[in-house]
Amino acid sequence: MLGRNTCARARMLRFRPWLVLVSGGCVMASRLVFGLAVASLVGMGSAQADGYAKGGPGPDCCRWTGFYVGAHAGYGWGALIPPTQETGLAREVSLSGGFGGLQTGYNYQVAPNWFFGVEQDIWLGNISGSEVQRLPAPRIESEAELGGTVRARFGYVLGQQALLYSTAGIAWAYNTGGLQYRDAAQQALAFADRLTYSERNLHLGFALGNGLEWAIDRKLSVKAEYQFLYLTKEQYFAGTTEGALAGFHAHTLRLGINWRLQ
User: Fold this and answer.
1) How far apart are CA 163 and CA 148, in angstroms?
2) How remote is the C-alpha of 63 from its chain's centroid?
3) Tens digits of per-residue pLDDT, 152-183?
4) Which residues 6+ apart lie within 8 Å of 146 measured at CB?
5) Roughly what angle, to the nearest 10 degrees, separates helices 2-12 and 17-50?
6) Are 202 and 148 in contact (CB under 8 A)?
7) What's this model's pTM, rounded to 2 decimal places?
8) In terms of DSSP bridges, do strands 93-110 and 244-260 run parallel, antiparallel, or are they unpaired?
9) Which residue from 20, 44, 227, 252 could staple onto 209, CB 3.0 to 4.6 Å apart?
């Protein structure tokens, strides 16, 4: 009550210089407390909107803009598509296996909630399978051991902390295909010119997928991603009795981590 009355009297007697000082002190103190409260609320709101515990990483726009590098690991499953069509012969060979690799890319955030970018990845692994066919046909084997993609990414920035995106681009993989006859008798029954066949080919195709990337802090983020890979048919064992075209497709799930360089 005493402070409130003093401030009130000071406002009524502003023409007295010494009371003006008292009045200024009351008003300044009130404004200081009010200003600190507003600043605290604004700071808390910004931190919550950013999704960072403390020390917001800067302007809302363009936090994701810049280059990044990272690593990933995943699992793939799909099928080799051999050209055999005769009854009793394999039409598909099931493939599965793990892989891991590295990626690098660039994001550009436009407006507050949209982004687009480009990413390149390379992986090593063993996505493989085999199929035993009806005699006298040979055993079919396939192993994709090296591959990668070059893709565009585009999507929505959710709360400045998450990216929801789709991705599409070019895919490639080295695949080793093989045919194996059990013995010379089986080979003779099939009229094959070799007991075993093996060839490594580069397959080109496309990749389509969707993903979610989540920022842990200003630099580090983790992601989960699905990709469908389709690799076109290539010539195997040309100039032999078993020459044919074969391609494959695969579904892949991968987890990754990215480090932003900006």
Assistant:
1) 22
2) 18
3) 999 999 988 899 999 999 999 999 999 999 99
4) 122, 123, 124, 125, 173, 174
5) 120
6) no
7) 0.73
8) unpaired
9) 227
